[in-house]
Sequence to fold (273 residues):
Amino acid sequence: MSTPQPLDGRVAIVTGASRGIGAATARALHRAGAAVVLAARDTEALTALAAEIDAAGGRALAVPTDVTDPTAVQHLVATTVDRFGRLDAAVNNAAGGGHPPTPLADVDITAFDSALAVNLRGVFLAMKYEIPAMLAGGGGAIVNMSSTAGLQAVGGLAGYVSSKFGLIGLTRTAALDYADAGIRVNALAPGPIHTEQLEAAGEQARQAAAQAMPMRRIGLPDEVAAAVVWLCSDESSFITGATLPIDGGKLAGAPPFRRPATAAQPRTNPTAT
Ligand code: NAP
Fold:
């Protein structure tokens, strides 16, 4: 007989599951026993991941979805319930749109709107349809993917920062609306995590990012996925409306001053009085 897992028999949706943190999360939810419904726009990537999970003995379904489209999001939830009979957990992780680092007055209006459309309105739409499906099954757990940039602003990123700050407010509101109805809603705030964007930035940029962190390293998608699994499980049953940083200590403050190993040490004169 196989070892019982924390999410045995549960059904979870993951948006932004085609790569990065979302794909790692889908694999982790599967390993924790859940059936997973994979949503994003890249049909090929979703289908490949669903096949991988099926081949590993799991239950997965790819539902190509643009989270900015209410009809598509409604269809995602309806398809989940049709196929697996219920919805217990949802990870609203998709992010996109936005603009490159730009001083606010120069930010393109359409680019600003696009960050909010995916990262904030997209999560609103997801919860709008996920919550009734969860209520029908007696409750559930939702995890929304914010960022350390949702708690501490980053200059030049007006669209992304606004969407991620907004997402924490949206998470708290949803948590309060359904706290007495068996649905827990929490947010995660990852720091720099090694996904495609940091991969594309190159080794030097990753080293620089790592050195700015108290732990002197960037995080891994699996380290975020592990927190998602915990927040979706009964192990976190009294936690709702919370935002958990997964950031190697970044939001705790500035790391202690450490001299680079190669730097000359100040000389002391033992005879000085
Ligand atoms: P990523 O590699 O850029 O992946 C983003 C995911 O969102 C992809 O699966 C993408 O799939 C999907 N997506 C984008 N627009 C979409 C849309 N309109 N409809 C549906 N899906 C859409 O991101 P990541 O690095 O894994 O990050 C995942 C989450 O963690 C995001 O919310 C991000 O803001 C947050 N986060 C990441 C970091 C980090 O360092 N990586 C740090 C803090 C927070 P398609 O292109 O196939 O649609």
Summary: Residues 35 and 101 are 38 Å apart (CA to CA). The chain has eight helices and seven strands. Strands lie at 11-15, 35-39, 60-62, 89-92, 140-145, 183-190, 243-246. The mean pLDDT is 95.
